[in-house]
Amino acid sequence: MLIRIKDDFDIDKIISSGQCFRPCIVNSDDKIYTYRFITKDHVLYMNKTDKNDTYEISCSKKEWEDIWEDYFDLKLDYSSVRLSIRKEDRYMIECADCGNGIRILNQDKWEMLISFIISQRKSIPAIRSCVEKLCERYGKKIKTDRESVYLFPTPDKLINVSQDELSECGLGYRVGYIIDAVKKVYLGDIDLDLIADLDDESLYNELIKIKGVGTKVANCVMLFSYHRTGRAPVDVWIKRVIEEHYAGIDPFPSYKENAGIMQQYVFYHSINKKY
Q: What's the pLDDT tens digit per position in 262-273?
């Protein structure tokens, strides 16, 4: 099936923007790339066509409308968000131009919680490797019409996994944090779906009850799975930008509900145009 996306949409930028760790290119034939996205038990393959705004997708129209339009946040006009940047904020305009095409994905809450716990002090390739090992060992294996893939393991698949077994996935000191997250979610101490109805601060306070979830991880989970686009996670890259381009004054709160989108533009610019 063919679909058109007229607003900002660049698959390569999306999958390399640091917000997701499983989307990837699965094959290349005559420079025609197939991109694979997985969310819960849904798998999508996308190909670019000769027309910039047209893509070939592997799912039905109903699944696209029910699952993937929300996943890619297609109801939000990102071109308008970019154009809303203040003219005097030249650095942000530069970053938005560089990151034009990035969208904030609405990803699975459980997957994002575990993925960003893993992400601490790891490079993006290292995070991807750990996440894939976790999926291959403990995720459900399903077959598509192209390949076999592993879904992200649910709490019930991890509840009886030992610390030593988890360590074999390269998780290091994060193993204890993951075990705590598994227990809290499996036992119902934290209901990741129920807390979605909370305001930002209450949601944040619930997430940081999990060991290893501090300000940065909580904000990442809020931005990339609860669509709290007013949250702008701050890591070493963003700290450097704030110091070097904004005289130590955090610019993101001034962008209010678009702060997280601006953060993604800045982060993408930072990792692709090194100092």
A: 999 999 999 987
